[in-house]
Write a structure and sequence with these properties.
With 309 residues, this protein is an alpha/beta fold. The chain is built from 11 helices and 8 strands. The chain has helices spanning 25-37, 57-71, 86-98, 116-128, 150-158, 172-184, 200-206, 220-231, 235-248, 261-275, 293-305; strands at residues 8-9, 43-45, 77-80, 103-106, 134-138, 164-167, 191-194, 210-211. The chain has an 8-stranded parallel beta sheet with strand order 1-8-7-6-5-4-3-2. Strand 6, helix 6 and strand 7 (191-194) form a beta-alpha-beta unit. It is globular.
Amino acid sequence: MIGDRLSGVVPPLATPLSPDYEIDIPSLERLIDHVLDARVSGVFVLGSTGEGSQLTDAQRRTAIEAAVRHVGGQVPVLAGVIDMSTARVAGHIKDAAKLGADGLVATAPFYAATHPAEIDRHFRGLAAVSELPIYAYNIPSRVSGTKLPPDLMVRLGADGVLAGVKDSSGDDAGIRRLLLAAQDAGLRNFSVLTGSELTVDASLAMGADGVVPGLGNVDPHGYVRLYEHHRSGNLAAAQTEQERLFRLFGLVNAAPGRMGGTSAALGAFKAALKLRGIIDCALTAAPSIPLDTDEVEYVRRHLETAGLL
């Protein structure tokens, strides 16, 4: 399904929850229809935006199964297999493969401090139990500050261990370093996707293959327009679209100081999806704190300004 090189817009789907904190499959299906209508290149379940690390193993399986079934082969389905150790991730890999995922996304191990040699061993161990392509997820803020070294990622790509990297480090210089290292190594089938919603135009200009934007749940059409403008060489239009999305992203600031940044961002994304009539309930997984009425109104104003309501 994925082909030689994953590119384009691949939203990391939110995981809609019911009032009793079970996965709301009808809402998830509507969300999938929403992003497919924008002509995205793939979908990614159980990433950070999908609250994969906060869900039970049974809920993870439910989300993958529902997504694979509803997508029905229209685009690749990537499954997050994020966990603390190689053995635990390997178990998630087996589940995702049985459920029909097309690719896998894994972080470095976390909780225990890791060395690049251990990160290398981790990804090689995962590749040994997987027939699906594996994409490394560079997100230092979620894995004890550990960054994935570009030279190591490229070496794993050259050895056939990794199919690419999703970079959510927020380090544009680091993305450029990775792209240049891949270019110098002659890697042709190695995808570099940015997870930074606010600098997609800059990453594409550096040579990134695409974007995995959490805000792409709320406005997938905007990110697809941005990508298509860049691909066609209309850089002014790409910049204009990026600036509109930059302003829309301000909705994540709905609850300054009242909760953690993750609670605020995921709560804002889900509130926006509910306001747009795509999901039924804006609950986030515990221990995240829900947005209050005033904070939801803050989200509404951003949607109205962006022309989405």
